[in-house]
Amino acid sequence: QPLISSSKWLQHHGLKRNKLSLPQILSQIGFRHRKDYVTTLGKLVASRYADGLFPQYTRAQDGSVYNLTAKKELILHFVDCLMGAIELYKQRMEWLTSESRQIFGVIQERCIVIVLDFGTVSSAEFDLCRDALSMVLVEQVTQIAKFNLIRAAQDLMKWQQKPIPVSEHTVKSAVAWLWKLDHMTAASPTSSAEALLEARRDDVVSS
Questions:
Q1: CB 145 within 8 A of CB 166
Q2: Helix or strand holding residue 43 (H, E)
Q3: What CATH number did the domain enclosing 153 receive?
Q4: pLDDT of 115-130, one tens digit each?
Q5: How far apart are CA 9 and CA 112, in angstroms?
Q6: Which one of 72, 97, 122 terminates a domain?
Q7: Nearest CA to 206 among 109, 140, 106, 102?
Q8: β-pairing, 43-46 with 35-38?
């Protein structure tokens, strides 16, 4: 799936975009039971001609009543469309909550710098962090334009001097660099801030 936000995804696959929201469906399978103010009578007058002729549906949101006139085939068509939409939403949710997106979300920027601050994690946790970072590089960074890696340390460590174009070779190189890092490295109280400042000096959209 493309690396786009859920709001943009919904612009293409949302119920309203596909005319499957409740008001849109109701307008296609029936008509609203009107209650209008008649000036000459000076009061609200409800149309009674539909009473008892059609099944009625009351919207909980605003209390409006709709007379349902559609044949069974049309209603079943909307049932199929809604079931398809539910399945599509499930797939999107599964995708959003799987693999690297569980940790990093969906990367939407075209140029990024990932700042690595491992702190005092254990050796096992250090490997878990590198697994997660390798995953995001392979799954998401491969779909953007430029990237770089910076490790927070007393002596700042940069994979490249500035973000470079993404390619199969550069991603493999970054993963290899990541797995060559030492578990423990000297740090200072300002290491994290300095790494972030260095990342922002590059022409990047996101750190």
A1: yes
A2: strand 43-46
A3: 3.40.50.410
A4: 999 888 899 999 999 9
A5: 22
A6: 97
A7: 109
A8: antiparallel
Residues 46, 34: contact at Cβ < 8 Å?
Answer: yes
pLDDT at 49 over 70: no
Q: Which domain holds residue 152?
A: 102-201
- Residues 6 or more apart whose CB falls under 8 angstroms from that of 165 comprise 145, 146
Look-up of token digits 């009674």: 48
Closest to 148 in 3D by CA, of 192, 70, 200: 200
Alpha-carbon gap, residue 179 to 130, rounded angstroms: 7
Alpha helices in the chain (DSSP H): 6-13, 22-29, 72-96, 101-104, 123-139, 168-179, 191-201
- Torsion on CA atoms 110, 5, 173, 145, rounded to nearest 10: -20
- Placement of tokens 């990047």 in the chain: 204
Domain boundary among the residues 42, 72, 97 is at: 97
Hunting for tokens 């690297």 — which residue is that?
100
Q: Residue 138 falls within a domain, yes or no?
A: yes
Enter the pTM of the model.
Answer: 0.72
C-alpha to C-alpha distance for 146 and 165, rounded to whole angstroms: 4
Greatest Cα pair distance in the chain: 87
Distance CA 66, CA 60 (A): 12
